[in-house]
Amino acid sequence: MTKISKVFENNEKWIAEKLAIDENFFKNLSKGQKPEFLYIGCSDSRVTAEDLMGVKPGEVFIHRNIANLVNNIDLNVMSVLNYAVRHLKVKHIVVCGHYNCGGIKAAMIPEDFGILNSWLRNIRDVYRLHKEELNNMEDETERYNRLVELNVQEQCVNLIKTAAVQQAYKERGLLVHGWVFDIHTGRLIDLKIDFPKILEGIMEIYKLY
Ligand code: CO
């Protein structure tokens, strides 16, 4: 599937399929959205968010970037977050990383990646925070996988550092989840990050609300 024209053919098929099931499908879709989830994942072409979660249009608000980072000075992710939490009032935020992530791999290599350096620096900071645990791992693949998981955890912490998340947690019980997509099996793994506990541990420093 490389030809652009094929994409438009596929689109026509997709429209026909949707209308065959429900003739008002697009009419209803155009009325608005009320997603319960905000999903922040990697841009990797193999990690197709809606597909792997089996969700329909309108169900998940999505943001993807290299290595699923929640950088507090990235206007893009912060805008998505604020809109999803304060206006759409999503009930859950998911940060979903994946094994074999090229962004994580690049951050483990001592090399100049040009404009990507400042982006990948966020991942190197995660490595520094967990250096002891990571350096104690003999196996390179194991260390790589673990950094994928720790990166998800730290991005969840970054979410908790924002006023929007703190307010929504307190007022209506918004929850943050950390997942990893195992590209070898297709399985979604819940890292079971203890959100209230993390919140309690860092609020003395990051409390805004
Ligand atoms: Co990736």
- Please count the helical segments: 10
Give the distinct bound molecules.
cobalt (II) ion
How is the largest sheet built, in terms of strand order?
A: 2-1-3-4-5
Specify the biggest β-sheet: 5 strands, mixed
Poorly predicted parts: none
- Structurally, how many domains make up the residues? 2
**Care to count the β-strands?**
5
The arrangement of helices and strands along the chain is: HHEHEHEHHHHHEEH
| CATH superfamily annotation of the largest domain | Carbonic anhydrase
The CATH topology of the largest domain corresponds to Beta-carbonic Anhydrase, Chain A
CATH architecture descriptor name of the largest domain:
3-Layer(aba) Sandwich
Radius of gyration: 19 Å
Termini, distance in Å? 49 Å
Helicity range: 40-55%
Strand coverage percent: 5-15%
CATH class call of the largest domain? Alpha Beta
The outline comes out as globular
Mean pLDDT: 95
Please state the structural category.
alpha/beta
